[in-house]
Amino acid sequence: MQTNTTFPTAGSVDRRELDRHIAEMYRDVANEARRDLHFPTGRRLAEALGYPTELLDQLPADAVNSFAGVGYHLGLARLLSGERVLDLGSGSGMDVFAAAAKVGPRGSVTGVDITPEQLARARRARWDETVSFHNARIEELPFEDGSFDTVISNGVINLSADKRRVFAEAARVLRPGGRLALADIVTERQIAARTACQADLWAACIAGASQADLYREDIAAAGLELRQVQGNPGYRFTSERARRTSDRYGARSISLLAVKPIRASRHTSHPDLGGGADAARAAQEEGSTTPKTTEEVSK
Questions:
Q1: According to the 3-state scheme, what is the secondary structure of the chain?
Q2: pLDDT(228) > 70
Q3: In this structure, what are the phi and psi dihedrals at residue 252, rounded to the nearest 5 degrees?
Q4: Average pLDDT of 223-247?
Q5: 178-218: pLDDT as tens digits
Q6: Which of 4, 11, 22, 3 is nearest to 205 (CA)?
Q7: What is the Cβ-side half-sphere exposure of residue 140, based on CA atoms within 13 angstroms?
Q8: Of 9, 68, 146, 285, which one is least surrounded by beta carbons within 10 A?
Q9: Does residue 13 or residue 117 have the better pLDDT?
Q10: Residue 297 pLDDT
């Protein structure tokens, strides 16, 4: 069994209690229930994060209304027609539908989530056979190796108590040359054990957040090469408690792009890699192995 090296205090949170809080919190998000949340939701949030208005106008309103992401990462993903895309923690499906609009009818987008109400809402909004949703954990993906051109995720990996396993699974299901594009919460300082044991703050995307340098280490441990990182200043926690905790540990939203290397000779012909092959090679060939940053990920 793999040890979680990303978050040494992860064992201090009760996994079943964490699952219960996540299920309850995101059930309420799916149902647009009137309750106090630690984080913003809906179209106003998506616009603040940089989602283009014309893209949001194409998406099912129910999915947009239940959006609970932390950044706009699809610009980094550079999705192309015909690509196969996987969304880790797809929630109400907004990013799945946004990705489907970009890859078109020759592509496909698959979402995985564990909240029944979110899955039900997303499936009701599903518009054709190119989009599908599955009940699965992001640490145990039910897909074959190399099944996808691009893996995306938005505000979800911080909820996992085994982030290294999540990145390993993302790398496994990516084809060589595939991309990982995500938005998530990271911290400047390691979360204290007394905070990490609070399952409600884990479910709110704070207490489970990794220190930024450890987050990068887990990406590298999965064999992925980090290419670009940018901050998401439009994201703000909403409750006073969440803001205090966020300020204490320097929690903030980032978006990043990582690539699964193509391990082949320059003389080896490339097989049919799907619609995203050119974008993947472009990402592979961009500069050195040092990631471009618009804001430092670690101090």
A1: CCCCCCCCCHHHCCHHHHHHHHHHHHHHHHCCCCCCCCCCCCHHHHHHHCCCHHHHCCCCHHHHHCCCCCCCCHHHHCCCCCCEEEEECCCCCHHHHHHHHHHCCCCEEEEEECCHHHHHHHHHHCCCCCEEEEECCCCCCCCCCCCEEEEEEECCHHHCCCHHHHHHHHHHHEEEEEEEEEEEEEECCCCCHHHHCCHHHHHCCCCCCEEHHHHHHHHHHCCCEEEEEEECCCCCCCCHHHHHHHHHHCCEEEEEEEECCCCCCCCCCCCCCCCCHHHHHHHHHCCCCCCEECCCCCC
A2: yes
A3: -155, 160
A4: 92
A5: 999 999 999 999 887 777 776 666 655 677 889 999 999 99
A6: 22
A7: 7
A8: 285
A9: 117
A10: 43
- pTM (2 decimals)? 0.83
- Tokens at 138, concatenated: 């992001």
Q: For residue range 152-171, list pLDDT tens digits in order.
A: 999 999 989 899 999 999 99
Give CA 78 to chain center in angstroms.
Answer: 15
Sign of CA dihedral 252, 141, 56, 120: negative
What is the token pair recorded at 80? 């192309």
Tokens encoding 26: 């995101």
Domains of the chain: 10-293 (3.40.50.150)
Share of the chain above pLDDT 90, in %: 59
**Mean pLDDT in residue range 10-15:** 56
Sign of the C-alpha dihedral, residues 31, 85, 81, 41? positive
Amino acid in the structure at residue 262: I
Q: Is the distance from CB of 127 to CB of 152 less than 8 angstroms?
A: no
> Do residues 18 and 221 make contact, with C-beta atoms less than 8 angstroms apart?
no
Statement: residue 17 has pLDDT above 70: no
* Pair 209, 187: CB distance under 8 Å: yes
The tokens for 29 are 């998000």
Paired sense of beta strands 174-187 and 210-211, if any: parallel
Largest Cα–Cα separation, the chain: 60
Distance between CA 122 and CA 59 in Å, rounded? 11
